[in-house]
Design brief:
Elements: E1 5-12, H1 22-37, E2 46-49, H2 56-64, E3 70-72, H3 80-94, E4 99-106, H4 108-111, H5 125-129, H6 139-153, H7 157-171, H8 187-192, E5 195-197, E6 200-201, E7 211-219, H9 220-223, E8 231-240, H10 256-267, E9 276-279, H11 284-294, H12 302-305, H13 324-327, H14 335-347, E10 360-367, E11 372-379
Length: 382
């Protein structure tokens, strides 16, 4: 099935420790993505971004001297960029914009700060019922989900560690990855690393890096005349479930159940049809919960399902082929990087980590404390 909209450009900014400003990294990513598409700033009439400020799209437009016909600055954490794909697709279909850039960047490692959001106000449920206990945000919330999940499914910490072990194997194939020049991990090393919030250790947690990226979307008709192989937007879906963990009835069931079902239905495909998947890996538990919610395996089955190298290079389910947020990069919000890697795989441009014959890809973002969920299905012609 087709939406009539395609991704025609994709690029990452410099990554790691850059000592660049946020706007400098944004400009770098956008310039590279437009060059990848064979377009220029003069072609851009739609802009979607978040994380620069409360007026992210306004500030970015001003920085570039643009007056876009359409903008979006939805702040939904790591899933915002998959949400932007849906909104940009709808805007292009409706004639509100012809060429939309989606971008993000952060310099949190250089700035030595992970602050990407506002202060929790005193009257909110989380301020009243959660903050007094001193949870690490968002880590302790994911740790509670992990503790509950392991209790429910009878899994072990070593089984959960496979998510990090597999991510490192992919990163060793990606020259841009922060952990590219290191070595393979073992489950024992993951479990034995510094405990941060039980049961999650340091190696269960995503990196803290600078970086960002951008993608360019336009109509499929126009895409045929551009430089790169168009990657079609086939389906999308989203759910917003909670701000406070106090409101969650079951920590092991996420909104990805609904976002994934909608995306697959719009695309006219099933989980079994996906050739390569990019799933937000803020923590190892995020991946386990998301794989089940999207329908790749049954409830409580994820840790058995990913065993025996299934999600490693050469396995039958290529997952987070860039190395993910655990070993590639994580500039605070990782959703745009999922899309960039999906595009690279579908174009056949992923080098040593290329998945042979990839024609359908999934990118799924998660934001907040399992709060927001957005799924995108992409494809290319055979």
């Amino acid at each position: 099935m087709r939406t009539g909209v395609a991704i025609v450009g994709a690029a990452e900014s410099d990554l790691g420790v850059t000592n660049r400003s946020v706007l400098g990294l944004q400009a770098q990513a956008i310039g590279r993505a437009l060059a990848d598409a064979g377009l220029t700033l003069r072609d851009v009439d739609g802009l979607a971004t978040t994380g620069v400020s409360r007026f992210s799209a306004t500030q970015l437009a001003d920085h570039f001297g643009l007056q876009p016909r359409w903008t979006d600055s939805t702040y939904a954490g790591g899933s915002a960029f998959e949400m932007f794909v849906a909104r940009a697709t709808q805007a292009i279909q409706a004639g509100q914009a012809e060429t939309v850039v989606i971008s993000f960047a952060s310099n949190q490692r250089s700035a030595r700060s992970r602050s990407l959001g506002g202060v929790v106000e005193d009257h909110t449920p989380e301020a009243q019922f959660e903050t007094p206990y001193g949870p690490l945000f968002p880590l302790s919330y994911y740790a509670m989900a992990a503790r509950r999940y392991l209790h429910m499914c009878g899994g072990t910490r070593e089984q959960l560690a496979e998510v990090a072990v597999a991510a490192r194997e992919w990163a060793l194939l990606n020259p841009a990855a922060f952990r590219h020049g290191t070595r393979s991990l073992t489950a024992e090393e993951v479990v034995g690393s510094t405990m941060i919030s039980s049961p999650l250790t340091a190696l269960d947690c995503c990196l803290v890096t600078d970086g960002g990226g951008a993608i360019v979307l336009t109509s499929s008709e126009r895409a045929r005349d551009l430089r790169r192989k168009p990657v079609e937007v086939l389906g999308y879906g989203e759910r917003t479930t909670n701000t406070s963990m106090t409101a969650v009835a079951d920590l092991t069931v996420t909104g990805a159940v609904g976002s994934g079902a909608d995306a697959f239905a719009r695309a006219g495909v099933t989980p079994a049809d996906i050739d390569v998947a990019q799933v937000y890996d803020s923590f190892t538990i995020t991946v386990a919960l998301t794989l089940e919610a999207l329908g790749f395996c049954g409830r409580g089955e994820a840790l058995d399902w990913i065993a025996d190298g299934r999600i490693r290079p050469g396995g039958d389910f290529p997952l987070n082929t860039s190395g993910g947020g655990l070993s590639y990069c994580h500039p605070g919000q990782f959703g745009v990087m999922l899309l960039i890697e999906a595009v690279a795989q579908l174009r056949g441009e992923a080098g040593d980590r290329q998945v042979p014959g990839a024609r359908l890809a999934l990118a799924h973002g998660t934001g907040g404390i399992l709060s927001t969920h957005a799924t995108v299905v992409l494809g290319v012609d055979t």
